[in-house]
Amino acid sequence: MSEQQRRIGEIRVDRSEGFGERLLGALLDRAHEMPPHLIAPLVAQEVARIGGREVSVLLQDYEQLMLMPLTGRGLLTGAPQPIDASPAGAAFLEARIVEVVQDGGTRMFLPLLDGSDQVGVMAVTLDRVDNDDRRLLRRLAGLVADMVVTKNGYTDVFTRARRRAPMSVAAEIQWALLPPLRMSVPQVEVAGILEPAYQVAGDSFDYALNGDVLHIAMIDAMGHGLGAAVMATAAIGAYRHARRSGVSLAGIYAYMDEVIAAQFGPEQFVTAQMMQLNVTTGHLQWVNAGHPWPLLIRDHEVLGQLEGTTTLPVGFGGQEPLVSEGVLRRGDRMLCYTDGLVEERAAGGEEFGLAQLIDIVADVERAQHGTRATVRELSQALKQARGGITSDDATILLTEWRGGTADYLTLLD
After folding, report:
1. Quick one: which of 238, 287, 45, 215 has its CA closest to 144?
2. Which of 162, 231, 248, 295 could cysteine-pair with 335, CB 3.0–4.6 Å?
């Protein structure tokens, strides 16, 4: 061994814990076997170690209108906070820390981010705030979000906190079926919403990012109520099974068609829109099975429908479909939706229609907000334009392609 190698070997990395590491580490160590209902009180206890007080944990409700407070020992429990008109709502929508100076200190609102999906907001008051506090609390909020999502898999505590109305069995099934309502990576972002949140039955969507390919599906099962929810569950299950088996889009359609026909008979069907987007090149492939065509949005203007070759709805035994292809430009958005948005009829009997949908999408897009905010605003604007009527499911899924390559190891440097 050379002298230089010997000296390098003697260099020791400082592995001692700093204050922030001790706080986050203690929380993580204790949270492993902590019952779910004690997570938020544990967070309040740990925040007190840095002089924080009046800790609140707020989770988004199913309609994405309000932030609902968790209850528990050591938590400040107040009224639900509106997402559209509160500091907590701004932190939630914009995924950033919001600070409000008030008598006795600064109230901080920190987004709870599980990956890129907004879970809710953590609020805490400190006498004084510096950048070290901001960095530590931001990381603490990320840990809290991960714990809420992880423990939500075996508790009803967080689910109950999010509800503002009774939920139907069909809606219960559909919500359990969904992926996160938002996913964002440097190359692409997806955001969705279901209406009516507490009564939805036959609508669903799914997506998965596998390497450079984003898989997207939106389905609308025939009928209403529990029967539609069961059919939608079978359709999404068949879609995932075929997708994970590595078959083509045409093969995915064929397998879904076989499953629905075998289980529900010749009179039942599911409309579907299935897509595969290469997030590096923007190359897009899609199969439309009797579903409304997606809207293509460029530079925040609606260019029109993303049309192509259509085939029979899933379950009708259609022939092998032709796969449509195209290439997106950076910044392009695709809006997938179900027919409940356009087929709703007002009191006078007039159908809402595609033209009105396009007009409202154009109005909302002019604000040039992010996908999550755009989806929320669009859902609310459409509900208002239909006079608050939602007699059929009305689901939206918005995808924005940004392009480029993403070397995630480089991003970590």
Report:
1. 45
2. 295
